[in-house]
Specification:
Largest sheet: 3 strands, antiparallel
Helix content: 10-25%
Shape: globular
Structural class: alpha+beta
Bound molecules: zinc ion
Strand order of the largest sheet: 1-4-5
Radius of gyration: 14 Å
Strand content: 25-35%
Number of strands: 5
Oligomer: single chain
């Protein structure tokens, strides 16, 4: 899928600028945006926005906390996925996740391993 294909259904999201798209190495912007980290959870998600953004200050990576992985930070200037949504019509949830973790998640999900260690 090219980064300039139509935006995926239901994703209330602006395309990242070309400079960001060019910086992506392992997956396309659309793959990072549409990969669902919450599969199987049946919360009512509305007004979902997912973006690739550059950190203006350090943030802790959500997947580092959520999956028993090593807690780690997203550094200033690092490109990462930022998602927010209205959960169960009740509260705004948001999280940030670094692209390294997204690479791991997408890799696990595909079950594909091209043997490309970095
Ligand atoms: Zn991470």
């Amino acid at each position: 899928m090219s980064p300039y294909d139509p935006r995926p259904e239901g994703l209330n999201t602006d395309p990242a600028p070309p400079s960001v798209v060019e910086a992506l190495r392992r997956h396309t912007e659309a793959e990072y945006l549409t990969h669902d980290l919450f599969m199987g959870e049946d919360a009512d998600i509305k007004c979902r926005t997912v973006k690739l953004v550059t950190a203006r200050k350090p943030h802790s990576c959500w997947l580092g906390q959520a999956r028993g992985a090593k807690p780690h930070e997203i550094a200033v200037g690092e490109l990462h996925r930022y998602e927010k949504a209205l959960v169960d019509g009740d509260y705004w949830g948001s999280y940030r996740c670094c692209l390294n973790c997204m690479d791991n998640e997408i890799g696990d999900f595909d079950g594909s391993d091209d043997g490309d260690e970095e």
